[in-house]
Amino acid sequence: MERKLLTGITADAFVSDADRWALEKLQKLPLLPVVIKKFYEVGFDRWFYCMNMSMAVRCGPNQYPTLYNILRESCQVLDMPEPELYVSNNPFPNAFAGGVERPYITLRSSMVDTLSDEQLYHIIGHELGHIKANHVLYFSVGAVLFALLDMLGRRTLGASDIASYALVLAFYEWSRQAEFSADRAGLLVSQSLNLSVETQICLTAGPNRLRHEQSRESFMDQARAYQDADTLDQFGKAVLFMLYGKTFTHPMPVHRAQELERWFLSGSFERIMAGDYNLISRAA
Q: Which of 3, 68, 244, 271 has the fewest CB atoms within 10 Å of its CB?
């Protein structure tokens, strides 16, 4: 498949309004600058980079060239520098972006086994979206947020338990919204809604020998049924979210699939493909 290169595109083209709003809310919390300063003082970014490099295999022209070539083409599509790409041994499919000063993407081995080469374009595009949108700093801080708060202590700059709790909840809320933006970047790289949705199904169901029986149409019907639940079920979802979901770092998979479909149907994807990166509808 020959992909269209989106020369000159910026993160503003795919960052959702909800992501932008949640980040602005997070940045207004007075405790955040103190936490970020401590993050750099301790050297967590360097530690994360060294740990990842010590426990994964770095891809390149002579090391997993298939994965490296997917990365290289994906970066060309999003018009951005190449981060480092690694593969780690893990039976649970996942991928993540890290490295504030030296960006990198790590794919778990089970992710490579679970997805086709074409589906990997969506995953790598998703992680590139995090990097291009400058999500990595906040993700990295969030990964050690509790440790940083312990280091700072309750009395630092008058930080109370309430201030710490508000910061934690704001991080969780923003991290969920950031995933919608990154999903859009994945679609911009895959350049096929069907392919991106099928990738989401594979990750939701996990590795299994019956993957050839999966149905994109049935999954989207399931997503719509979840969103269009009756009043009682909607109330139940709200209660469960307050009890459990508010500390999730990712939105529900069916919700992600439907939000991506909505963005596609809004016409934003088509306009970006036509070269209109600025005057677009940013459906949240």
A: 244
